[in-house]
């Protein structure tokens, strides 16, 4: 595996605005080839898994959001039907908080 060539290819692809999924896949190969666990974890979280079930302190600041005073009605499709939330703060509906919001809704 030619890691240096892959890195050069990623840089070229970034400069040519190629699709991010193509670049991310190469980033994953590079991280695994370098055996760099931190880089591998970052690539996986950024491009493949998201920051689900990750300790809050380990989520990069640029991935954190602050929503102040916004409430909304929200519906989303799930395999068992439509789930509706009323008067929920949007911060409760961020993907890593859906399970918490659903549990709160069911307990009411």
Keywords:
47% helix; 2 domains; alpha+beta; 4 helices; 108 residues; 2 strands
Structure description:
By secondary structure, this protein is an alpha+beta fold. Strands 1-2 form a two-stranded antiparallel ribbon. The protein has 2 domains: 3-53, no CATH class; 71-107, no CATH class. Helices cover 47% and strands 16% of the residues. The longest helix has 15 residues, at 20-34. It has helices at 3-15, 20-34, 37-49, 98-107; strands at 71-78, 81-89.
Based on Cα principal axes, name the global outline: elongated
What is the number of beta strands? 2
Structural class: alpha+beta
Query: What proportion of the residues form beta strands (DSSP E)?
Result: 15-25%
Let me know the average pLDDT.
79
Structural Rg: 19 Å
Count of structural domains: 2
Q: What is the straight-line distance between the termini?
A: 55 Å
- From N to C, what is the helix and strand string? HHHEEH
Q: What low-confidence regions span 5 or more consecutive residues with pLDDT below 50?
A: none
The number of helices is 4
Strand order of the largest sheet: 1-2
- The portion of residues assigned to helices is 40-55%
Sheet of most strands: 2 strands, antiparallel
